[in-house]
Fold this protein.
Amino acid sequence: MKRSLLLVEDDLLMREFITDYFKKEQWEVHEAENGRIALEIFEQTSIDLMVLDIMMPEMDGWSVCRRIREKSDVPIIMITARAEDDDHIMGFELGADEYVTKPLSPRVLVARAAALIKRKEGTVGREGDRLVYGDLYVNRTAHTVSVAGNKVNLSPKEYDLLLFLIKHYGKVLSRDYILDAVWGYDYLGDLRTVDTHIKKLRAKLGDEGRYIGTVIRSGYKFEMES
């Protein structure tokens, strides 16, 4: 089954370059040259993943990401010509899942997109069916999380982070270790990425976010209160 990609990039040559690589991997590609058109396509089309440039006319990538996250947890990879950490932190706070810095490798971009889709569908790292901690319920097969019976919409990276913390139940995990394990050794962001995602994850889990504890000067651990 073909996956559906929404590519949002104002540079025509770059857009064609990226599109060719995705089509070779059997993706269906929808193109938008600015944020306004991207939102129109998103409303009318079933999209599995979005590749979103930051600097665009009419509506920038930040604004598009914010609007998308108001209604959907579709995986989002953001493209930026700047490597500043603040840009990455801003994107993650808005709900982006991955970052790629220009000049980019289309092959790497396609590989990251495929990995995000697999994690979204729960086909990577599946080790069982159900995990229950108090009112927190994780179904690995269905790739769903709920609290007190209410579904919690997590981004792929937030879901990966939660499972990683649960997998190491009761163990103190440093920010460096979490960053390398969940984002990968080649990730260029800093430790604030971990803090930002932990904060968002706790907020989404509500009362059950208390299981994610902060260990001062050490990191984080997942553990039920005794």
